[in-house]
Amino acid sequence: MIVAGIDPGLKGAIGLVQDKKAKVFPMPTLKLTKSKKTIDEQALREYFVKYKVKHVYIEKVSARPGQGVTSMFNFGAGWGLVRGILVGLQIPYTLVAPQTWKKVMCKDMPKSKDSTIIVAKRLWPKLNLKPTPRSKESDGMADAVCIAEYGRRELG
After folding, report:
1. What is the overall mean pLDDT for the chain?
2. Residue 45 pLDDT > 80, yes or no?
3. What pLDDT is attached to residue 63?
4. Please, is 122 exposed, middle or buried when counting C-beta atoms within 10 Å of its C-beta (0-12, 13-18, 19+)?
5. 101-116 pLDDT tens trace
6. What are residue 39's DSSP bridge partners?
7. How far apart are CA 109 and CA 55, in angstroms?
8. DSSP code for 34
9. How far apart are CA 140 and CA 114, in angstroms?
10. Please, are residues 127 and 24 in contact by the beta-carbon 8 Å criterion?
């Protein structure tokens, strides 16, 4: 059974886990203008169909103080888009708080933004966590694949 993990947002990712194998992809986006992007809903849908995803775990996120109104609106729209696609495809999903999945996946790790990168590299040493060949490893991609692994463990 293939389980997906989603770190929602434009810099988020889609992680896929089956048994001990994993894949991860940056969130597919479309360029609206020179400086604005949006989630590519057709490409996102195609990931779920192509890989025959059976269950999705989505990070349950909320607004934080200091975040801009426009960015939070766009983030929430993307979060809802992911859920809408899953409902349309009749793929069950579970919302999971960051504290919940990190408690399982990052236990005995220092609390840092890079802890999920370390965990993902330990579990899947050959997994590419770079959104582009020239970028550094993405904590969003590491989060997505760790969320998927959390979900796989939860489902047994």
Report:
1. 91
2. yes
3. 60
4. exposed
5. 999 999 988 888 789 9
6. 29
7. 27
8. S
9. 10
10. yes
Q: What is the pLDDT of residue 108?
A: 84
Q: What is the mean pLDDT of residues 142-156?
A: 97
Contact 147, 5 (CB under 8 A): yes
Q: How far is CA 109 from CA 15, 73, 115, 118, 153, in A?
A: 21, 32, 6, 9, 19
Cα→Cα distances 71→53, 63, 67, 74, Å: 29, 10, 7, 5
CA distance 28 to 25: 8
Contact between 17 and 27 (Cβ < 8 Å):
no
Is the predicted pLDDT of residue 41 greater than 80, yes or no? Answer: yes
Q: Say whether pLDDT at 10 is over 90.
A: no
Residue ranges of domains in the chain, CATH in brackets: 3-155 (3.30.420.10)
Report the b/e string of 89-111 with b at 16+ CB within 10 A.
eebebeebebebbbeebbeeeee
